[in-house]
Each structure stands twice: as C-alpha cells, then as structure tokens.
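Pilot study result, target chain (287 residues):
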Amino acid sequence: MQIIAPKNETRRPVWRTAAIAVAIIGLPVLLAACNKSIEGTLAAYEDDAPAGSLYNRGLGYMNAGNFGDAIKSFDEVDRQHPYTEWARKSLVMSAYASYRRRDYNTAIATANRYLTLYPGNEDAAYAQYIMGQSYFAQVKDVTRDQETTIKAMRAMEEITTRYPESEYAADARKKVIATRDQLAGKEMQVGRYYLERREYVAAINRFDVVVKDYPETRHVEEALQRLVEANLAMGLVREAQTAAAVLGHNFPNSSWYKDAYELLDERGVQPEDFGGEISDSVGNRTS
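Predicted structure:
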C-alpha cells in the first residue's frame, strides 16, 4: 500500500538542514581535537623514564657526535629527576655537550648553573674548566676587543686557585699564560699605534702596562725597547737609560737591547738603572 504524506506536512527549513550537515562534517575535527587533548593530558601523567636510561641515552648520542640530542637527553634527566645524582651528572655533561657543539654561551651558562648548585662537588673543577675553555675558544686576535680574553684568563685562574690539585690545573696554567700574553700583545699593538703617531705619553702608558703587569710575557723585551725610544723622544733620558739597563740585564743577547743601546749611544749616554717601577717590575728577572 502506498502511503502518501499529508499535504500540510511542515518542511524542515533549509538552514536547519545545513546546520546539521555542518555539525556532521565538523564532528571528526571535534573528535580529533578531543583525542589530541586527551592524549596530551595522558602524556602529562605518564611515568617518567628511568634517570639512568635517559643519562645513558645522552652518552650514546655523545659518542655518536649527536650533541643536540645528547643535550636534550641530559636536560630531560634534570627535568624529570631534579636534585638527584643523575641530574647533577647530567648537568655537567650537558655543559660539555654544548661546548662540543660550539654553543659556547649555553655551555658557560650551564656550567655556571652547576657551580651555583654544586660548588663543593668533585666535578666543580670540571664545570669551571668547561667554562674557561668556552671563553678561551672565543678569544679574538689582538686587533679586536679582548673582553673575552680577560674572562678566559679569570676562569682559568679560578681553577689554579680553587682546584690546584685537579687534573685540569696544569692546562689551566698554560691557558693563563697564553691569555696574559694575548693581553700584553693587545697593549703592544695599541702602544705601537700611538708611537707611530708620535703620541708619546699614550704610547709610554701602554708599554708601561706590559712591563709592570705582564713582565713574564714574550712582549716585555720589545716593550722595554719602545720605552727607550719613546722616552728619548720626550727628552726623558734617565727613564730611557733605566729601561735599557733593565732590558740589557735580563735579555743581554736580545736584538731589542742592541737597538736600545744604539739609541742611547747616539745621545752620548749608556744604559743605567736609576730605579723606579720599571726596575722593580723586571729588574730581578733572569734571562
């Protein structure tokens, strides 16, 4: 039997039908969003990975040269297991991985954090060494600003002072010598610039710094000769004689002493030590 709908049946509005269609179409998107939200919530309550597993994973990445993932693993140990022995070890390894990755600023910051949290720990010397090495790797040539060189020197001096018996102390002492030589070289570079411009007072000030503050560096011979040259140019003969005498006493076979002696000889005077800061700074040094 055929059933015929009554003619007065109310038709469903078009907009309502469209709304239902949109709702049906949008349902998968809504469900996906809900699932994603649920997954994120569940992930937040998942059990933490064992600290040892995360740490060893980081070491594996390190051995493979994958320093970026190594850092992530070590940092995850610190996040999931803070203030544990694993977290302490991971922190210093994260600093080392950043250093190997040449991310020196991060290495310095991480090492500094380690030293703040564990200043008396046995690995504190290692953290300090990583910091010093990170600064040292950024030392620029003498024509550039030497702020990083100063930081490297101070970081390495901290090792020689606070951890003199550590395995890093010997290399730290070498780095201190190298940074001090670099700083002396910078003073010489500026001093020569002033000397060429005949700005003798400024030049003398720079050469004085080398002789007084860095007397153990290889630049001290030239600095003394330049002091002879600059002082003679200003008519300060006694100061020039003293600089030459100190140079000759400590470096008698130096070509710089030969030049200084000839400059004085042209003025009819000889090297003679009249005392003063220059003599006190270098006077007792042996050749």
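One observation from the pilot: The chain has a mean pLDDT of 86. A full batch analysis is planned for the follow-on phase.
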